[in-house]
Amino acid sequence: MDTILPAELVDAARKVVAANLAAGRRVTLAESCTGGLVAAAITEIAGSSEMFECGFVTYSNDAKLEILHVSIDVLETFGAVSVATAWSMAQGALEASGADVAVAITGVAGPGGGSEKKPVGTVVFARAERGADPGNVVADRKDFGDLGRGGVRLQAALCALELLMPPEPEPDADAAP
Predict the structure, then answer these.
(1) Strand 27-31 with 101-107, pairing
(2) Nearest-10 crossing angle of helices 7-23, 149-163
(3) How far apart are CA 41 and CA 157, in angstroms?
(4) For 40-88, what is each residue's pLDDT tens digit?
(5) Which residue intervals of the chain are DSSP H helices?
(6) How far apart are CA 43 and CA 54, in angstroms?
């Protein structure tokens, strides 16, 4: 059976799998509003088991607390859709796995659940890397607008995949031009 996932999502996942295999990196995910869509895209690619460690779908706040050890203070102070929560989710996924890099996604896919400060289409991402300075927070908030639930989830999954791409190798300063 062919994939039921959108082609652009599978294409992006294919690039992520190849790049992380080449870099020798294992990845993990902490998904909320995407509900496992990013993990589904990655595991659609043959050979992904060599680079995909695991995924956590922590949709409820209780799951974020219990599985990823997000602090209740973070959730109560900043809310589930915040840089602080996404960063905590990424750190928790990294600690709970043997992966080298973790990406977290949390947001408001809609059609309800939005607010004036966090309208439908608001999604927050964070990436944590093993051995990196935990004070160097890598996070981003995107406002996709009300694209419909499926549209928001697709755009969020595409952004999360982009965050899983390893950095480009630094050019060799000693190499001749």
Answers:
(1) parallel
(2) 20
(3) 9
(4) 999 999 999 999 999 999 999 999 999 999 999 999 999 999 999 999 9
(5) 7-23, 37-43, 61-68, 72-78, 83-95, 149-163
(6) 10
| CB-CB neighbours of 102 under 10 Å | 30
What is the spatial distance between Cα 158 and Cα 140, in angstroms, rounded to a whole number?
A: 14
DSSP 145: -
Q: What is the distance between the alpha carbons of residues 161 and 44, in angstroms, rounded to a whole number? A: 13
Residue found under tokens 């977290």: 104
Burial class (CB in 10 A: 0-12, 13-18, 19+), 24: exposed
What does the alpha-carbon distance between residue 151 and residue 123 come to, in Å, rounded to a whole number? 12
Q: What is the pTM of this model?
A: 0.92
For residue 106, the tally of other CB atoms under 10 A from its CB is 28
Contact between 92 and 32 under an 8 Å Cβ cutoff? The reply is no
* Residue 86: both structure tokens together: 């996404």
Counting every residue written for the chain, the total comes to 177
**Cβ atoms 33, 153 nearer than 8 A:** yes
Q: How far apart are the two ends of the chain, measured CA to CA in Å? A: 48
- Residue owning tokens 């969020």: 156
Closest CA to 160 of 67, 52, 78, 71: 52
